[in-house]
């Protein structure tokens, strides 16, 4: 049985339902032939990887996390087919970690819509993805304490009006700000702070779908000038009394926390870490072989460590994906935190093994290791590893813990 993924600009890919190897093979070819060669340019310009997403759409892959009945391939934890989605993320991260981060935001938004949206919302929004290539993202960032030297204040205020709400304020770390068409906004109706501020927000947090073409939504590109992950274009986005119709509310108040949905996305960060490690590992292996260093026992030890690291990371992801697919949800959630912690360190160690084994030239462009090191260093700070590890410890001790944002 073939699966129709036709869209407005091209033919449907010839992929069979359940043929996950064919999908991953096609994405792997795209990543190697097109995405990886573009990564340096996107990084230098701090530009959204628009051509990469165009290719994903043309190949029929933009909607892989869309359920089959709406024209997708049904990947992800909501459809109990989790590993193929995470393997695709790893493949994209191997080409470009910034691309993978933008992809994560898109795919996770589709999983949320699948889990919480009404049938009419699903029909409308999934059609936009599959047939028109619309890209989604989810934004929660409202840091309440400015960094030294920073005068800007972040946060949003929601005001009820006839037929919906108006939104005023700003969100930071707004990934894909100049590339996405839709954003799921995580908003606390009680005031600024987003999803991470306090536990009290859990029962009232709203998920609001925002059309980013609205003229009251503007992007401030002056703030995002990081050392790495530059092509995620995670700018500040401002809302000037942006009207959000009530029919764009996804789920009910607190449904994001009620379903512990953040825990379904944590392992995907780890999948991206693995992709970065694989890219560095393959570059290093090729470099060392060309330089004839295979006989050096210290090089052999570093290569052995790298090989064990990437295989261990793969096993962790496979284990956690299996727990999600088997609906062993309590185990899956804490295992995802464990995988995040372990794979972060395995990836970081692997990149540094490459640098030590290959020397300074591995950090000189056009070597991708220089960019991988910068990107991974920044992306590892997406969550606080100390808090993640403490969350794991609290779970083991039987203490109260927050599996979503790692706070008591």
* Structural classification: alpha+beta
Strand content: 5-15%
Rg on CA atoms, Å? 21 Å
In the predicted model, the low-confidence regions spanning at least 5 consecutive residues are 1-17
Could you name the key traits of this structure?
four-stranded antiparallel sheet; alpha+beta; globular; 11 helices; 408 residues; 12% strand; disordered N terminus; three-stranded mixed sheet; 7 strands
Molecular structure report:
The chain has 408 residues and is α+β, with helices and mostly antiparallel strands. It contains eleven helices and seven strands. The chain has a four-stranded antiparallel beta sheet with strand order 2-3-7-6, with no helix packed on it. A hairpin with a 2-residue loop joins strand 2 and strand 3. Helix 3 packs across helix 7, helix 8 packs antiparallel against helix 9 and helix 9 packs antiparallel against helix 10.
Concise synopsis of the structure shown:
The protein has eleven helices and seven strands.
